[in-house]
Design goal:
Layout: E1 8-11, H1 15-25, E2 29-34, E3 38-43, E4 46-52, E5 64-69, H2 72-83, E6 88-89, E7 94-96, E8 102-107, H3 110-114, H4 119-131, H5 137-141
Parallel strand pairs: 1-4, 5-8
Antiparallel strand pairs: 2-3, 3-4, 6-7, 7-8
Length: 143
């Protein structure tokens, strides 16, 4: 059995608008099909479905999308784009975009940094991380 698993994002009538927005954020992105109820799109090769489901359900932080970033420039890009026009910054690399979808914009090396075998260094890194909204790779590495 080869069943695809992909998220369905419930929007209040703004599924196509949201898909178009996400296609401006991610370089490798496209809308693959659409109808009045559903918009299918891909972000960096990952399939998503946007559903015009109405106002009954809202997004919350229980589900978020993690974007692994190789460089600080990538972190800055995604942070800036996803918080624009009403997005909200949170702590420790978390944000909500203007549609209420939660994202974690993190350096790819975050796991390596916080699991440093030097427990004192790992503690300093965690303390630095806990004080940040948008993560700064150099600050974490130098903690």
């Amino acid at each position: 059995m080869n069943n695809d698993i992909y998220p369905c994002l419930w929007f209040d009538g703004k599924a196509k608008e949201a898909a178009e927005f996400y296609c401006t954020v991610f370089k490798n992105a496209k809308i693959t099909s659409e109808n009045p109820l559903v918009v299918m799109f891909e972000l960096n090769g990952k399939k998503f479905m946007g559903l015009n489901g109405g106002p009954m359900f809202k997004f919350n932080e229980a589900v978020s999308f993690v974007v692994d970033c190789e460089t600080q420039e990538e972190i800055d890009h995604y942070w800036s784009k996803l918080t624009t026009d009403g997005g909200e910054e949170s702590m420790c690399g978390w944000l909500k975009d203007k549609y209420g979808v939660s994202w974690q914009i993190v350096p790819r090396i975050i796991g390596q940094l916080i699991s440093n075998p030097d427990k004192e260094k790992a503690g300093r890194i965690m303390q630095a991380l806990m004080k940040m909204k948008k993560l700064d790779i150099a600050t974490l590495q130098n903690a």
